[in-house]
Amino acid sequence: MVNLGLISGNKGTKSVGLSFRIPYNTQWGQSLVVCGSESVLGSWNVKRGLALSPQHQGDELIWRGRTAVPAGLECEYSYYVVDDERNVLRWEAGKKRKLVLPDGLRDGEVVELHDLWQTSSDGLPCTSAFRNVIFRKTWSTEIQRPLGVIQTKLDENDSVVVQFRICCPNIEEETSIYVIGSSTKLGQWKVQDGLKLYYAGDSIWQADCVVQKDDFPIKYPWLIEMPWRGAGVAVPMFSIRSEADLGVGEFLDLKILVDWAVESGFHLVQLLPINDTSVHGMWWDSYPYSSLSVFALHPLYLRVQALSERIPEEIKEEIQRAKELLDGKDVDYEATMATKLSIAKKIFVLEKDTILNSDSFNNFFSENEGWLKPYAAFCFLRDFFETSDHSQWGRFTCYSIDKLEKLVSKDSVQYDVICFHYYIQFHLHLQLAEAAEYARKKGVVLKGDLPIGVDRNSVDTWVDPNIFRMNTSTGAPPDYFDKNGQNWGFPTYNWEEMSKDNYAWWRARLTQMGKYFTAYRIDHILGFFRIWELPEHAMTGLVGKFRPSIPLSQEELEREGIWDFNRLSRPYIRHGFLQEKFGAYWTVIASNFMNEYEQQRYEFKEDCNTEKKIASKLKSCSESFFFLDNEDKIRRNLFDLLQASRNIVLIRDPEDASKFYPRFNLEDTSSFKDLDDHSKNVLKRLYYDYYFHRQESLWHQNALKTLPALLNSSDMLACGEDLGLIPSCVHPVMQELGLIGLRIQRMPSEPGLDFGIPSQYSYMTVCAPSCHDCSTLRAWWEEDEERRCQFYKTMVGSDSLPPSQCVPEIAYFILRQHVEAPSMWAIFPLQDLLAVKEEYTTRPAAEETINDPTNPKHYWRFRVHVTLESLMKDKELKSTIKDLIRGSGRSYPPTSGEIEVQAGREKGVATAAPTKQQVTAGLEKISLLNGSPKTEAVAVL
User: Fold this and answer.
1) Distance CA 721, CA 587 (A)
2) What is the DSSP string of 440-480?
3) pLDDT tens for each residue of 719-774
4) Is pLDDT of 618 > 90?
5) What is the DSSP letter of 584?
6) How far is CA 136 from the centre of its chain?
7) H or E stretch at 359
8) Which domain of life is it from (predicted)?
9) CA angle 719, 724, 729 (to 5 degrees)
10) Residue 893 phi/psi, 5° resolution?
11) Buried b / exposed e along 163-197 (16+ C-beta atoms within 10 A)
12) Is the pLDDT score of 690 beyond 50?
């Protein structure tokens, strides 16, 4: 953003000088580069951008640079932090800066640009959630003066042109914006004589004025407004129930949910991931975070009745029978998928020629063929080979463009099958786009979910295997959710490879999401700092390591007196364990399943070091174990022993045998407990250093390389799920990037607290009483009597015995705590909202839980037991919730009656001042805080 144009009278050359100035404190080895759209600024190649030089001014480090440019230059530019080899370490958030040099510049004159580093938090009002939804205009503002154009020319040498800019998305029709201040050009504090700003497009207002150098410093108000706060409802797409759906929530149901949200006072509807997950062809595919494709939508959410206006009567009758059959308490994933696809195929046969030759389909196809063709081909091959494991596809195992084009060719025998997948995705797009536009018009933000991983057997790993580490698995270390950690089974990312094309895969994902959503949740944002990486064969999340991380070197350990690396890094199974499990027959088990790698220390043989291998070997050798009468017991004991084989203290790096990682919770292992005191003390110290100190700088830098690629690829409002074991670098980075964090009351991020205190949450957060990964408010209340009593005493402030169930009064109290919190958003699972009314609490609370993180094969099938149409008719519930939100000071979308009242209000004049990132250098600004002026000096040119 151009903050100041200073024109001086240097002559004698045929070009214009362009000078950059920005204050920014770097670390050792870092420098700043300005890079832009024109060749003089590198054509967006940072390695060819303009290098800036540092200069200390008091406590500030000022970076400057100058280059010659053609007169009349128009371009965009941004600032980047780079290392000595010009690798990008960090770049500005927000929109690119726009530069348009003024007309009439003479040869040799110099334009100086005085900028401030842009952070994402300053641009939040310009995200699509606010600009296109919450502050969506019902009127059209024409651009009065193009963004960046300096309209005013200098008449005197001792003067400068100052350009004011401000982002004001929430401006009503016929409202004017003025800047007032101490200068005569700013009206000397009189609104009627102030500087009027003109609309420049994209919610930006700007104006120029000529100021004499003698007038500096100029004072003008920096207004601090009450921050905007809103509320939302969260519900998985599959959990919605309506009178029209076919066994599961459907995209078009969102229109009714949006209506209910508006009438209940909500500005946001949050969903779980909605991408296709049909990997296995069974109920395991109900897991919404294991994508078959990060671009394709899930056929589960298709409304088959909306596929055509000419559905034959017999198919309509089939749909009606299916509705009655599938309208159960929970989602029947397999039956619903099979039924919808069967009906859709019948309709496809009837209308495929009409649809596939339509302009709307051809436009959709041309915009999406980059992912649509591989997706359709993958689905065909998955069904043909009866597996999604593309390593089993023979000559199609390795993806290539030539093979793809033959598969999807119009001359191929399977072309109709390919087109059916196109057809389904086209209609899913139409239905979700219709619901998304409806939400925008109603002032409701539709918030999506960006999963951290993809399924190992997915379109993405087939097409781009080089961007994944396919011999690893993703998970989380032990935490609140699971004491054994979690193993999600996804391959980890090859970030080094992804960086070569500036994270194009991620940018494409976000671009696709932005077609439907105006906000999104980044699942497990900690994974962009570091990921918990497990070996492919791991069953739990215990034996992982962070990637990237600085391991313990063999040399480092030896300096500390640690020498026996086999003892510490190989399975600690002693003959006593075998005797305890198998009694007198332990030697038979040992000889068939174990290797004795040291005296009386064993590990599993290669052909039986997983549960599958053990089961297979037991089956093939059952005759050899005829004297053992309980094969199931042997299997269970071997499985237990296999788990115990993870009983190690150090994990040896499979790619470098001289590097080690301390096993999580190593003090809990019997291997550690049998060590001498010296080794214990050394390993405890190194363990603490590894997990809580030595990685912070590395993870900080890693996040600032990866996250901005996501944030800059769309204008959606970004929220990060920052639960779990949180490194100290996470929250500062999220604050710098303008990312909104998550606060769950039962999982406080502050040390020493049993429960979070909503009134103390920061503004840049989403607060919620529960989420899909934990029990609902009602179930949580009933789970633990001691915890319930503690909450009642500390949070409710009562020493009396709490009710054993979460009665509506308790639910209302907890909801009120959250809506009154300072958090930007208070978002509530629908189950927690329904708990404020007794008639919606008849279902056992435990049945309302969406996910059990401790169970990797959890069936995601929860359905709300009341239809959206019934909720729309429940005026009492809507009134209760809306009064709760209204009383908290949070914003809520107006209903049609309220819009009519507001339409008659008189329009006024708004006075405005730029935010810190938009303040012109050379000015002294006054911040009006609590009525007391606070002066902040800025260098005078």
Assistant:
1) 50
2) HHTT-EEEEEE-S-B-SSSHHHHH-GGGEETTEEEEE-S-S
3) 999 988 899 999 999 988 889 999 999 999 888 899 999 999 999 999 999 999 99
4) no
5) G
6) 24
7) helix 359-385
8) Eukaryota
9) 70
10) -70, 135
11) bbbbbbbbbeeeebbbbbbbbebbbeeeeeebbeb
12) yes
Q: DSSP letter for 789, please.
A: H
- Sheet with 445-450, strands from edge to edge, namely 717-720, 519-522, 445-450, 268-270, 230-234, 825-829, 765-768, 741-744
The answer for residues whose C-beta is within 8 angstroms of residue 431's C-beta and 6 or more apart is: 250, 251, 252, 301, 302, 303, 306
pLDDT given at position 153: 64
Sheet strands (E) in 44-92: 50-51, 53-57, 60-69, 74-82, 88-91
Tens-digit pLDDT profile for residues 93-132: 767 888 888 777 778 888 888 888 887 777 788 899 998 9
- Cα-Cα-Cα-Cα dihedral of 82, 83, 85, 89, to 10°? -50
Helices (H), 236-358: 253-264, 313-326, 333-356
- Can you tell me the mean pLDDT for 707-722? 90
Preceding peptide of 894 cis, ω within 30°: no
**Hunting for tokens 């059990």 — which residue is that?**
852
Percent helix, percent strand, percent coil in the chain, to nearest 5: 40, 20, 40
C-beta contacts of 746-754 below 8 A and 24+ residues apart: 746/770, 746/774, 746/780, 747/480, 747/723, 747/774, 749/722, 754/787, 754/790, 754/791, 754/794
First-residue to last-residue Cα distance in the chain: 18
Q: Rounded to 10 degrees, what is the CA torsion of 679, 684, 686, 689?
A: -170
Kindly report the CA angle at 96 between 438 and 128, in degrees rounded to 5? 15
User: 507 phi and psi, to 5 degrees?
Assistant: -65, -35
Q: Hey, is 934 helix, strand or coil? A: strand
Dmax of the chain from CA atoms? Answer: 106
What is the total residue count of the chain?
Answer: 941
Please say if the pLDDT value at position 918 is more than 70: no
The model's pTM: 0.85
pLDDT of 148 reads 63
What is each CA distance from 45 to 293, 713, 750, in whole angstroms? 31, 17, 42
**Torsion on CA atoms 390, 393, 394, 395, rounded to nearest 10:** -80
Distance from C-alpha of 898 to C-alpha of 883, rounded to nearest angstrom: 15
Task: Report the SS3 class of residue 601.
Answer: strand
Tokens of 579: 């005797």
Q: Supply the pLDDT for residue 485.
A: 82
- DSSP-derived secondary structure letter, 291: B
Average pLDDT, the chain: 87
User: 741-744 and 765-768 as β-strands: parallel, antiparallel, unpaired?
Assistant: parallel
The three state secondary structure string of 716-759 is CEEEECCCCCCCCCHHHHHHHHCCEEEEECCCCCCCCCCCCCHH
